[in-house]
Specification:
By secondary structure, the chain is mainly alpha-helical. It contains seven helices and no strands. The longest helix is centred in the middle third of the chain and has 25 residues, at 50-74. The N and C termini lie far apart (62 Å).
Length: 163
């Protein structure tokens, strides 16, 4: 039964992620991204990581989607229209990385040690996540904050009216 639930959530996640990438309408893309967030929270709940599911919903579903709505309202889409189309050079350059990622993930799935039972749920779930977030993963956490800040400043600059 667990594989059925996980398979459903994984297929939902993959279809939503493809919609996020390939929808041309930005509103549809945001709704698809929200669906990705919900599917990811469902996977966290399935793994008995309730804190991560809650953080996923609170942080991403609220803050990031509001951020994307801000970008949609501030970016003049007339400027973006001239960049429509498939970026052929970027697609060709990304294919080797996609192939290597597929190979490495396939190797991990086929040769990995997934049969061991892991104790995912601990009694101090919040304490463990907080401790690891602010000690071991502090640098990636701060880098992600800087990237979001730069993206927001870039959206405001793009949305300015020219004199």
């Amino acid at each position: 039964m667990e594989w059925i639930v996980f398979s459903f959530l994984a297929v939902w996640l993959i279809i939503s992620a493809m919609g996020t990438i390939f929808f041309k309408n930005p509103v549809h893309s945001i709704l698809s991204f929200l669906s990705v967030i919900l599917a990811t929270a469902g996977i966290f709940l399935h793994l008995k990581a309730e804190l991560l599911a809650g953080l996923q919903l609170i942080i991403y579903a609220v803050a990031i989607v509001v951020f994307y709505v801000l970008v949609i309202t501030t970016v003049p889409w007339e400027r973006v229209k001239k960049f429509e189309g498939i970026y052929k050079r970027e697609l060709i350059l990304s294919l080797p990385m996609l192939f290597l990622s597929f190979l490495s993930i396939s190797y991990l799935v086929l040769k990995g040690q997934f049969e061991h039972e892991l104790n995912v749920a601990t009694l101090n779930n919040v304490k463990d996540v907080g401790k690891s977030l602010f000690t071991q993963y502090l640098l990636p956490f701060e880098i992600a904050s800087i990237i979001l800040l730069v993206a927001m400043i870039g959206a405001i600059i793009l949305g300015r009216k020219e004199d």
